[in-house]
Amino acid sequence: MSPDVTHTSALSPLLIIGSPRSGTTFLAHMVNRFFDVHVCRDNGTLARIYKHLSRYEPLSHDMNLKRLISHIYADHYIKERLIARGLELSEEEVFARVPRRTYAALIETIYGAIATERKKRCWGYKYASLARMTGRHVNDIFPTAQFIHIIRDAREVVLSMRRSPTAALERSWHFGAVDWVSHVSAGRDIGRRIEPGRYFELRYEHLMAEPAVALTEVLDFCGGGADRDARVERIHREIGSLVKTGNTEKWRTQAPADGIRQIERVAGPLLHDLGYTLVNPHVAGTPVGPAEVVWLYADRLFRNLFQSKLSVMGKYRLEVLKERWRARVRA
Protein backbone atom coordinates (compact mmCIF):
# COMPACT_ATOMS: atom_id res chain seq x y z
CA MET A 1 0.00 0.00 0.00
CA SER A 2 1.05 3.59 -0.50
CA PRO A 3 2.47 5.17 2.67
CA ASP A 4 0.31 8.30 2.43
CA VAL A 5 -3.45 7.70 2.22
CA THR A 6 -4.61 11.13 3.39
CA HIS A 7 -4.75 12.94 0.07
CA THR A 8 -7.40 10.99 -1.78
CA SER A 9 -9.20 14.12 -2.98
CA ALA A 10 -6.10 15.26 -4.90
CA LEU A 11 -6.20 12.21 -7.16
CA SER A 12 -8.50 11.56 -10.09
CA PRO A 13 -11.36 9.19 -9.22
CA LEU A 14 -11.89 6.18 -11.46
CA LEU A 15 -15.32 5.47 -12.95
CA ILE A 16 -16.23 2.12 -14.49
CA ILE A 17 -19.10 2.24 -16.97
CA GLY A 18 -20.66 -0.06 -19.55
CA SER A 19 -23.86 -1.90 -20.29
CA PRO A 20 -25.22 -4.32 -17.67
CA ARG A 21 -23.66 -7.81 -17.92
CA SER A 22 -20.61 -6.43 -19.72
CA GLY A 23 -18.06 -7.15 -17.00
CA THR A 24 -18.20 -3.93 -14.95
CA THR A 25 -18.46 -5.79 -11.64
CA PHE A 26 -15.59 -8.16 -12.46
CA LEU A 27 -13.41 -5.22 -13.51
CA ALA A 28 -14.26 -3.37 -10.30
CA HIS A 29 -13.17 -6.41 -8.27
CA MET A 30 -9.87 -6.57 -10.18
CA VAL A 31 -9.21 -2.86 -9.68
CA ASN A 32 -9.88 -3.20 -5.95
CA ARG A 33 -7.55 -6.17 -5.74
CA PHE A 34 -4.60 -4.87 -7.74
CA PHE A 35 -4.77 -1.04 -7.87
CA ASP A 36 -4.34 1.71 -5.27
CA VAL A 37 -8.06 2.42 -5.82
CA HIS A 38 -11.21 1.37 -4.01
CA VAL A 39 -14.29 1.16 -6.25
CA CYS A 40 -17.76 1.30 -4.69
CA ARG A 41 -21.23 0.85 -6.13
CA ASP A 42 -24.60 2.04 -4.87
CA ASN A 43 -27.09 0.96 -7.56
CA GLY A 44 -27.27 4.43 -9.06
CA THR A 45 -28.08 6.53 -6.01
CA LEU A 46 -25.67 9.32 -6.97
CA ALA A 47 -27.15 9.67 -10.46
CA ARG A 48 -30.75 9.59 -9.20
CA ILE A 49 -30.22 12.20 -6.49
CA TYR A 50 -28.48 14.42 -9.03
CA LYS A 51 -31.75 14.59 -10.97
CA HIS A 52 -33.37 16.23 -7.92
CA LEU A 53 -30.43 18.47 -7.06
CA SER A 54 -32.34 21.68 -7.82
CA ARG A 55 -34.55 20.93 -4.81
CA TYR A 56 -31.54 21.17 -2.51
CA GLU A 57 -29.90 24.26 -3.93
CA PRO A 58 -28.23 26.52 -3.09
CA LEU A 59 -25.83 24.25 -1.23
CA SER A 60 -24.12 27.33 0.17
CA HIS A 61 -26.93 27.37 2.76
CA ASP A 62 -26.06 25.11 5.68
CA MET A 63 -29.56 23.67 6.04
CA ASN A 64 -29.73 22.71 2.36
CA LEU A 65 -26.38 20.94 2.48
CA LYS A 66 -27.24 19.13 5.72
CA ARG A 67 -30.57 18.04 4.26
CA LEU A 68 -28.87 16.65 1.15
CA ILE A 69 -26.32 14.75 3.24
CA SER A 70 -29.12 13.36 5.41
CA HIS A 71 -31.03 12.14 2.36
CA ILE A 72 -27.95 10.50 0.86
CA TYR A 73 -27.41 8.60 4.12
CA ALA A 74 -31.13 7.68 4.25
CA ASP A 75 -31.00 5.95 0.86
CA HIS A 76 -31.49 2.18 1.06
CA TYR A 77 -28.59 1.35 -1.26
CA ILE A 78 -26.18 3.72 0.52
CA LYS A 79 -27.09 1.99 3.78
CA GLU A 80 -26.78 -1.49 2.25
CA ARG A 81 -23.67 -1.06 0.13
CA LEU A 82 -21.66 1.64 1.90
CA ILE A 83 -22.66 2.07 5.53
CA ALA A 84 -23.25 -1.64 6.26
CA ARG A 85 -19.93 -2.44 4.59
CA GLY A 86 -17.88 -0.16 6.79
CA LEU A 87 -18.39 3.52 5.97
CA GLU A 88 -17.40 5.18 9.24
CA LEU A 89 -17.81 8.83 8.25
CA SER A 90 -20.87 10.36 9.96
CA GLU A 91 -23.22 12.93 8.46
CA GLU A 92 -21.76 15.58 10.74
CA GLU A 93 -18.22 14.72 9.65
CA VAL A 94 -19.20 14.94 5.97
CA PHE A 95 -20.64 18.42 6.55
CA ALA A 96 -17.50 19.54 8.38
CA ARG A 97 -15.06 18.11 5.83
CA VAL A 98 -16.65 18.96 2.47
CA PRO A 99 -14.13 21.34 0.83
CA ARG A 100 -16.59 23.11 -1.50
CA ARG A 101 -20.34 23.53 -1.44
CA THR A 102 -20.95 21.41 -4.53
CA TYR A 103 -22.46 17.99 -5.15
CA ALA A 104 -19.18 16.82 -6.69
CA ALA A 105 -17.23 17.81 -3.56
CA LEU A 106 -19.78 16.03 -1.37
CA ILE A 107 -19.32 12.80 -3.32
CA GLU A 108 -15.56 13.22 -3.22
CA THR A 109 -15.70 13.56 0.58
CA ILE A 110 -17.80 10.42 1.14
CA TYR A 111 -16.14 8.13 -1.37
CA GLY A 112 -12.69 9.48 -0.62
CA ALA A 113 -13.24 8.59 3.04
CA ILE A 114 -14.17 5.02 2.09
CA ALA A 115 -10.97 4.67 0.08
CA THR A 116 -8.91 6.07 2.94
CA GLU A 117 -10.55 3.67 5.40
CA ARG A 118 -9.40 0.84 3.13
CA LYS A 119 -5.90 2.33 2.90
CA LYS A 120 -6.25 3.28 -0.75
CA ARG A 121 -5.16 6.62 -2.16
CA CYS A 122 -7.88 6.92 -4.79
CA TRP A 123 -11.61 6.29 -4.85
CA GLY A 124 -13.70 4.83 -7.64
CA TYR A 125 -17.30 4.29 -8.57
CA LYS A 126 -19.03 1.60 -10.60
CA TYR A 127 -22.50 1.96 -12.06
CA ALA A 128 -23.23 0.53 -15.49
CA SER A 129 -26.11 2.87 -16.33
CA LEU A 130 -24.02 5.93 -15.53
CA ALA A 131 -23.03 5.59 -19.18
CA ARG A 132 -26.49 6.78 -20.18
CA MET A 133 -26.08 10.18 -18.55
CA THR A 134 -24.98 12.95 -20.88
CA GLY A 135 -21.37 14.01 -20.83
CA ARG A 136 -22.29 17.38 -19.32
CA HIS A 137 -24.14 15.83 -16.39
CA VAL A 138 -21.45 13.26 -15.72
CA ASN A 139 -18.90 16.06 -15.69
CA ASP A 140 -20.99 17.93 -13.12
CA ILE A 141 -20.87 14.95 -10.75
CA PHE A 142 -17.34 13.73 -11.55
CA PRO A 143 -15.46 16.75 -12.97
CA THR A 144 -11.97 15.20 -12.71
CA ALA A 145 -12.78 11.50 -13.11
CA GLN A 146 -11.14 9.07 -15.48
CA PHE A 147 -13.54 6.71 -17.25
CA ILE A 148 -13.04 3.05 -18.05
CA HIS A 149 -15.73 1.99 -20.53
CA ILE A 150 -15.86 -1.79 -20.81
CA ILE A 151 -17.60 -3.07 -23.95
CA ARG A 152 -18.77 -6.63 -24.51
CA ASP A 153 -20.35 -8.26 -27.57
CA ALA A 154 -24.09 -7.46 -27.57
CA ARG A 155 -25.00 -11.08 -28.30
CA GLU A 156 -23.14 -12.24 -25.20
CA VAL A 157 -24.63 -9.42 -23.11
CA VAL A 158 -28.24 -10.14 -24.08
CA LEU A 159 -27.80 -13.88 -23.54
CA SER A 160 -26.44 -13.11 -20.07
CA MET A 161 -29.35 -10.74 -19.37
CA ARG A 162 -31.87 -13.45 -20.11
CA ARG A 163 -30.11 -15.89 -17.80
CA SER A 164 -29.48 -13.60 -14.85
CA PRO A 165 -31.28 -15.25 -11.91
CA THR A 166 -31.76 -12.17 -9.72
CA ALA A 167 -31.15 -8.92 -11.59
CA ALA A 168 -34.03 -6.87 -13.01
CA LEU A 169 -32.86 -6.79 -16.63
CA GLU A 170 -34.36 -6.96 -20.11
CA ARG A 171 -35.37 -10.50 -21.02
CA SER A 172 -36.22 -10.19 -24.72
CA TRP A 173 -33.66 -10.42 -27.49
CA HIS A 174 -34.90 -7.22 -29.12
CA PHE A 175 -35.10 -4.97 -26.06
CA GLY A 176 -31.91 -6.39 -24.60
CA ALA A 177 -30.17 -5.27 -27.79
CA VAL A 178 -31.87 -1.85 -27.55
CA ASP A 179 -30.57 -1.53 -24.00
CA TRP A 180 -27.03 -2.49 -25.07
CA VAL A 181 -26.99 0.05 -27.92
CA SER A 182 -28.24 2.76 -25.57
CA HIS A 183 -25.53 2.11 -22.98
CA VAL A 184 -22.62 1.66 -25.39
CA SER A 185 -23.52 4.65 -27.57
CA ALA A 186 -23.95 6.92 -24.56
CA GLY A 187 -20.70 5.73 -23.00
CA ARG A 188 -18.76 6.43 -26.18
CA ASP A 189 -20.42 9.82 -26.40
CA ILE A 190 -19.01 10.63 -22.96
CA GLY A 191 -15.57 9.80 -24.35
CA ARG A 192 -16.08 12.28 -27.19
CA ARG A 193 -17.29 15.07 -24.90
CA ILE A 194 -14.74 15.05 -22.09
CA GLU A 195 -11.11 16.11 -22.27
CA PRO A 196 -8.56 13.83 -23.95
CA GLY A 197 -6.85 11.41 -21.61
CA ARG A 198 -9.88 10.86 -19.36
CA TYR A 199 -11.54 8.05 -21.31
CA PHE A 200 -10.38 4.50 -22.01
CA GLU A 201 -12.25 1.76 -23.88
CA LEU A 202 -11.64 -1.81 -22.79
CA ARG A 203 -13.03 -4.82 -24.62
CA TYR A 204 -14.32 -7.58 -22.38
CA GLU A 205 -13.00 -10.15 -24.84
CA HIS A 206 -9.48 -8.69 -24.52
CA LEU A 207 -9.77 -8.78 -20.73
CA MET A 208 -10.72 -12.47 -20.85
CA ALA A 209 -8.15 -13.48 -23.47
CA GLU A 210 -5.19 -11.50 -22.09
CA PRO A 211 -6.19 -10.45 -18.57
CA ALA A 212 -2.72 -9.46 -17.38
CA VAL A 213 -2.08 -7.36 -20.47
CA ALA A 214 -5.51 -5.72 -20.32
CA LEU A 215 -5.27 -4.87 -16.61
CA THR A 216 -1.78 -3.46 -17.11
CA GLU A 217 -3.17 -1.20 -19.84
CA VAL A 218 -5.87 0.02 -17.45
CA LEU A 219 -3.26 0.52 -14.71
CA ASP A 220 -1.11 2.60 -17.04
CA PHE A 221 -4.14 4.65 -18.07
CA CYS A 222 -4.67 5.41 -14.37
CA GLY A 223 -1.10 6.64 -14.03
CA GLY A 224 0.69 3.47 -12.93
CA GLY A 225 2.15 4.95 -9.77
CA ALA A 226 5.58 4.66 -8.18
CA ASP A 227 4.98 0.98 -7.46
CA ARG A 228 3.69 0.23 -10.95
CA ASP A 229 6.17 -2.56 -11.69
CA ALA A 230 5.37 -4.37 -8.44
CA ARG A 231 1.65 -4.17 -9.18
CA VAL A 232 2.16 -5.50 -12.72
CA GLU A 233 4.20 -8.40 -11.35
CA ARG A 234 1.41 -9.23 -8.90
CA ILE A 235 -1.21 -9.04 -11.64
CA HIS A 236 0.74 -11.54 -13.75
CA ARG A 237 1.25 -13.81 -10.75
CA GLU A 238 -2.37 -13.92 -9.52
CA ILE A 239 -4.73 -13.10 -12.39
CA GLY A 240 -4.77 -16.57 -13.94
CA SER A 241 -6.74 -18.08 -11.06
CA LEU A 242 -9.29 -15.24 -11.08
CA VAL A 243 -10.43 -15.33 -14.70
CA LYS A 244 -13.16 -17.68 -15.80
CA THR A 245 -11.88 -19.21 -19.02
CA GLY A 246 -14.25 -19.85 -21.89
CA ASN A 247 -16.53 -16.97 -20.89
CA THR A 248 -16.70 -15.46 -24.37
CA GLU A 249 -18.67 -16.27 -27.53
CA LYS A 250 -21.08 -18.58 -25.70
CA TRP A 251 -23.82 -17.06 -27.83
CA ARG A 252 -22.53 -18.99 -30.84
CA THR A 253 -23.67 -22.31 -29.34
CA GLN A 254 -26.21 -21.25 -26.69
CA ALA A 255 -28.33 -18.56 -28.36
CA PRO A 256 -30.97 -19.58 -30.95
CA ALA A 257 -30.57 -18.40 -34.52
CA ASP A 258 -33.66 -16.18 -34.30
CA GLY A 259 -32.36 -14.57 -31.13
CA ILE A 260 -29.04 -13.77 -32.80
CA ARG A 261 -30.92 -12.33 -35.77
CA GLN A 262 -33.06 -10.12 -33.52
CA ILE A 263 -30.00 -8.80 -31.69
CA GLU A 264 -28.08 -8.10 -34.90
CA ARG A 265 -31.08 -6.35 -36.40
CA VAL A 266 -30.91 -3.76 -33.62
CA ALA A 267 -27.25 -3.79 -32.62
CA GLY A 268 -25.67 -4.87 -35.92
CA PRO A 269 -24.52 -1.43 -37.12
CA LEU A 270 -22.80 -0.65 -33.82
CA LEU A 271 -21.36 -4.17 -33.53
CA HIS A 272 -19.91 -3.73 -37.02
CA ASP A 273 -18.45 -0.32 -36.13
CA LEU A 274 -16.80 -1.90 -33.09
CA GLY A 275 -15.23 -4.62 -35.22
CA TYR A 276 -17.44 -7.58 -34.27
CA THR A 277 -18.30 -10.03 -37.05
CA LEU A 278 -22.02 -10.37 -37.85
CA VAL A 279 -23.78 -13.63 -38.62
CA ASN A 280 -26.66 -11.83 -40.35
CA PRO A 281 -25.21 -8.65 -41.87
CA HIS A 282 -28.20 -8.32 -44.21
CA VAL A 283 -30.61 -7.64 -41.30
CA ALA A 284 -28.43 -5.11 -39.47
CA GLY A 285 -30.34 -1.87 -39.03
CA THR A 286 -33.48 -2.96 -40.88
CA PRO A 287 -36.62 -1.23 -39.51
CA VAL A 288 -39.26 -2.98 -37.43
CA GLY A 289 -42.81 -2.84 -38.81
CA PRO A 290 -45.85 -1.72 -36.77
CA ALA A 291 -47.28 -5.23 -36.38
CA GLU A 292 -43.96 -6.60 -35.18
CA VAL A 293 -43.60 -3.72 -32.70
CA VAL A 294 -46.87 -4.81 -31.08
CA TRP A 295 -45.64 -8.40 -30.82
CA LEU A 296 -42.26 -7.30 -29.41
CA TYR A 297 -43.87 -5.22 -26.67
CA ALA A 298 -46.24 -8.06 -25.82
CA ASP A 299 -43.31 -10.46 -25.60
CA ARG A 300 -41.45 -7.99 -23.41
CA LEU A 301 -44.43 -7.65 -21.05
CA PHE A 302 -44.75 -11.43 -20.79
CA ARG A 303 -41.07 -11.87 -19.95
CA ASN A 304 -41.11 -9.06 -17.38
CA LEU A 305 -44.14 -10.59 -15.67
CA PHE A 306 -43.13 -14.24 -15.68
CA GLN A 307 -39.35 -14.37 -16.12
CA SER A 308 -38.08 -11.34 -14.19
CA LYS A 309 -37.63 -10.95 -10.46
CA LEU A 310 -40.64 -8.73 -9.80
CA SER A 311 -39.70 -8.39 -6.14
CA VAL A 312 -36.32 -6.92 -7.12
CA MET A 313 -37.94 -4.57 -9.60
CA GLY A 314 -40.59 -3.54 -7.08
CA LYS A 315 -38.04 -2.88 -4.35
CA TYR A 316 -35.95 -0.72 -6.68
CA ARG A 317 -38.98 1.30 -7.82
CA LEU A 318 -40.05 1.83 -4.22
CA GLU A 319 -36.64 3.20 -3.29
CA VAL A 320 -36.72 5.55 -6.29
CA LEU A 321 -40.11 6.87 -5.14
CA LYS A 322 -38.75 7.39 -1.63
CA GLU A 323 -35.83 9.42 -3.01
CA ARG A 324 -38.23 11.55 -5.02
CA TRP A 325 -40.47 12.12 -2.01
CA ARG A 326 -37.57 13.09 0.24
CA ALA A 327 -36.34 15.60 -2.33
CA ARG A 328 -39.79 17.21 -2.55
CA VAL A 329 -40.22 17.57 1.21
CA ARG A 330 -38.16 20.58 2.24
CA ALA A 331 -38.86 20.49 5.94
Describe the structure.
It is built from 16 helices and five strands. It starts with 13 loop residues before the first strand and ends with a helix. The longest helix has 21 residues, at 173-193. It has helices spanning 24-34, 45-51, 62-74, 76-83, 91-97, 103-117, 135-141, 154-163, 173-193, 204-209, 211-221, 228-238, 251-254, 257-273, 290-306, 310-328; strands at 14-17, 37-40, 122-126, 146-151, 199-203. The chain has a single domain (8-328), classed as P-loop containing nucleotide triphosphate hydrolases (Rossmann fold), CATH 3.40.50.300. It is an alpha/beta fold and 331 residues long. It has a five-stranded parallel sheet, with helices on both faces.
CATH topology: Rossmann fold
Biggest sheet strand line-up: 2-3-1-4-5
Radius of gyration: 21 Å
* Helix vs. strand class: alpha/beta
Low-confidence stretches: 1-10
Give the biggest beta sheet. 5 strands, parallel
Percentage of residues in helical conformation = 55-70%
**Total helical elements:** 16
CATH homolog superfamily: P-loop containing nucleotide triphosphate hydrolases
The counted number of beta strands is 5
For the record, give the distance between the C-alpha atoms at the N and C termini, rounded to a whole number. Answer: 44 Å
Question: What is the 3D shape?
Answer: globular
Tally of distinct domains? 1
SSE succession = EHEHHHHHEHEHHEHHHHHHH
Corresponding CATH architecture = 3-Layer(aba) Sandwich
CATH top level?
Alpha Beta
Q: Mean of residue pLDDT? A: 89
User: What percent strand?
Assistant: 5-15%
